[in-house]
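If you are new to this repository, start here. Below is one unmodified record pulled from the training split, so you can see the exact layout before writing a loader.
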Amino acid sequence: MGFLQPAPPPFDLDEWRARPFLARLKPNAQDWVLHGFGAPGIVYVLYTMKLIVFVAGGFLITWATTPDLGGLGDIGHWWLAPIVFQKLAVWTLLWEILGLGSGSMQLTGRFSPLIGGALYWLRPGTVRLPPWPDKVPLTKGYRRTVWDVALYVGVVGAALYLLTSPGEVFGARRIQPGAIIALLVLWGLLGLRDKVPFLAARPEVYGFVLLVSLFSLQHAIAGWQFVFFFIWAGAAMSKLNRHFPFVVAVMVSNTPWNRSARAKEKMYRHYPDDLRPSRAAMLAAHIGTAYEFGVPLTMMLTRGGALQTIAIIGMIAFHAHILSTIPMGVPLEWNLFMIFGIAFLFGHYGAVPLSTVGIPLLVVLILLGAVIPILGNLFPEKFSFLLSMRYYAGNWASSTWLFRKDTDAEGKLDRRVSKVARIGVEQLAKVYDRDTAQYVIEKGMAFRAMHSHGRALTGLLARAVDDVEGYLMRDGEIIAGIVAGWNFGDGHFHDHHLLEAVQEQASFEPGELRAIMLESQPIQKQRQRYRIFDAATGLLEEGWVDVAEMCRRGPWLEESWEFPVEVTWPVSNVASASRLTEV
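And here is the target side for that same chain:
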């Protein structure tokens, strides 16, 4: 890759464009193995600069607004104050809900502007996505109103108040519980009107920390330790699947500092022909899963001493490694907060007895930290993958949107839907030439195809439309970022509700826009539910795909559209469909 230009395609673009979709996908997937997304070097410099601003801003604001901390040079002393941990949680929440953190900039398909977030959520008329519009009164509708903007401003304002207020002294200085309650209430009301900014602020991390902050510090220290443990344990549990080795291989391929072609090739069975995860990738996935559960458990149980110190170093290294890979979706600030929290909660307060958590707080912790993630794995269609703590697991809801070429369907979305950013090709065309822009967009489709669920999405294309070559394929996550203002791996942001919201404004004709939507795998089943929609006419087909079939195929499906499914609706399709054995 260059410093200002993306890695050039290893083929002639004119010849590549003339190929059918699966034949175009093949060289893109093969190139992903060696170069990942191929982002120019300046992109990683920009992310690094953003992290410096995030860290420096958080500490400076906390120091400047909190009495009794001491001088700025005394940070080695005052970083241990509980209110500093609380304020840094609020700072990260604020950073995320403004759109500056996860889901920002080029590695999430944002080129102009570089963020969504506040640019959308402060603008009446843009798309909002209520989680339960048919069940919760006063939440129907897909257009943002001044009341939605007011709620969003209220959450931001409440967070700013918590961040800049001096707090109260209750044994030690802490944020006022009343102000925390005000923020949580406003945040919850915002979530009922629009799940996107609610989840963008990461309630399963920072909301969880603030909820525990309502208890006295005597109970909260051990409570925060449990919050961190449940995050790690939930993430580890979600990786007990066949999808995670694909994530490991793809992440290694995209790591900016890893320039070893041999090391990248070893993550796949037989490069360039067989791009399924190798034994090395599977072993790395299994070791990583055991590490993510075992090392935090060691920190929790040892309560001081050399073994806990080793575990602390191990978990800091764990998050530092993830941070250094600059993964797609860029959850970078979260990893920095976790590193600080490890040092604060387990480095300084690691000997605090777990018994100090108290029964009432323990019940809250188990409900939010264990029960919800378990239910989220059993019934993934009911829960966001964030609340289920299924980070990096590869078992994500996802979608592919198909825009008809001869009617310029993608252009209709760009012109008719109220939003801030233009479609991806138009954003990139401002930076590169249009041919390069089209190539980079399809390189993103290769990223999806490299994962197990991407095999299913690709295999379902021929079921969604009669002529695949007559459509432009776009990743639903990118569509969510363009239309709803944020995207971070949760397919529930680009499900049938987003399709309805788009259709409400764009008025596509039948056949102009179709979408394939794949739900996550329930942990107790070895298959995933899919649905195919037409924007104008609604649901066209519903059924199941076998996880084993997804894992057996290569990214380009060996250039064959034969992909077995079990159709469950409409009934007329069931007899003619290739059937799968129910597990």
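Two things worth knowing about this chain: Residues 398-574 form one domain. The first strand starts at residue 168 and ends at 170.
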